Amino acid sequence: MLEYLKRMAGRGKLNKRILDKAVAEGWISKEQEAEILKIAAEVAEEGAGNE
Prior knowledge:
Layout: H1 2-10, H2 16-24, H3 30-49
Helix pairs in contact: 1-3, 2-3
């Protein structure tokens, strides 16, 4: 599940609500959520720089 969510974050197809659900279900830890959010933020930053 972690690798799947990382790929989704890398494509910009993920948000905090989805990650909160994954943590609540026990699929990932809060530390893993933070790691994925970092990836998502980097992707969003790159996208903003291209506009």
